[in-house]
Amino acid sequence: MVSFPLPPIRSPQLTVTDTECLADDEGRERTECTAVHVRHVTAVNAFSCADVVLKRGTSRLHLRAKGSGMNLGMDCNKVVEETTETFVDAHEHYDMLEQLGRGSISTVRKAVRKKDGLVVSLKIAGSKDKSSLVEAEFKMLQSIKHRNIISSFDYFETSVSSILVLEYFAGSTMEDAVRQAAQGHLPELTSRELFRSLLSAVCYLHTSRIIHRDVKPSNVMVSVCLSDLRLLDFNVAKRLTEGGAMTMTGTRLYFAPEVINGEPPSEANDVWGCGICLFYMLAGRLPWKTLPESVFVDHPALKVTGSWCQNLSEPCKSVIRQCLTVDYHWRPPVRTIMMHEWFWADGFDPCSDADLNADITPSPSRSSRRTTL
């Protein structure tokens, strides 16, 4: 009998992309997938061998990593199961749309509330361990109301995750808006109006004895026309009346010098964050590329010089210097900055801002709603 040598068996070629595989793993029912290796026909007869490489209930991501000799350090099947269950529960009340963003502890998706057609944003924390943070953010947002602070509508828990229902604000983060700008930065007048709105939001918080603690370009949403904004991400915000120690959170380059040096949190930290946002809008970058790793660091003084600021007005430069004053004892409060001459241009009267004239008293808390699904 004459036989022909068999060619080497090649691995099956999957035609779907990595992104499609992840989407399939996260949102769809698992389906059985087989790859058939066909061997050559001999002179006597032909035969084929089917090898099942993906079995029902097994994550594609897990198998791909295993095939490459990688150890993901997590149970992919459990992740798939929990993510799928989250969307099953959320689908009872919302029509899920596209993903809007992803943070360190949560994913944000656009959705439509079924009962009234309201377009909302769902902030989904995919771990029950983070539920306390999400619930604390919900309670904080329920106690405040300002036109430039994102609104919260509801909070509910599924068996595997916590979901915060937020106002949907069309636009992008300040960070992305600056990156997409034609000149790589925003004009002074545009930056001034956005900065005025940001200061108004922070002034309202400080009037209510609340510090945000994480004011930075990625936590500010700006409208498509760059005329409106919302301050986001209150998961580390604190009431000064609560007291207690507070750990450093966030990205080091955004930290105020006193935070790095271990000083107690204060409103001055938020003023620094606002200054970082203003600098970023006008320069298209952060003031410093790197900072020393030492906790107790002599923060470099800001120099408002160079080509990036040669076309800026002197009042604008003055506001930048004041917000980013290294010694927080000399850093002006938000109310003082809002009265700066830079904001008096074009006939605008800063004294007309209700937040500037508000009494320093805590705002009344609204009744909180919480649903467990």
TrEMBL record:
<dbReference type="InterPro" id="IPR008271">
    <property type="entry name" value="Ser/Thr_kinase_AS"/>
</dbReference>
<dbReference type="InterPro" id="IPR011009">
    <property type="entry name" value="Kinase-like_dom_sf"/>
</dbReference>
<feature type="domain" description="Protein kinase">
    <location>
        <begin position="94"/>
        <end position="343"/>
    </location>
</feature>
<protein>
    <recommendedName>
        <fullName>Protein kinase domain-containing protein</fullName>
    </recommendedName>
</protein>
<dbReference type="InterPro" id="IPR053235">
    <property type="entry name" value="Ser_Thr_kinase"/>
</dbReference>
<dbReference type="Pfam" id="PF00069">
    <property type="entry name" value="Pkinase"/>
</dbReference>
<dbReference type="InterPro" id="IPR000719">
    <property type="entry name" value="Prot_kinase_dom"/>
</dbReference>
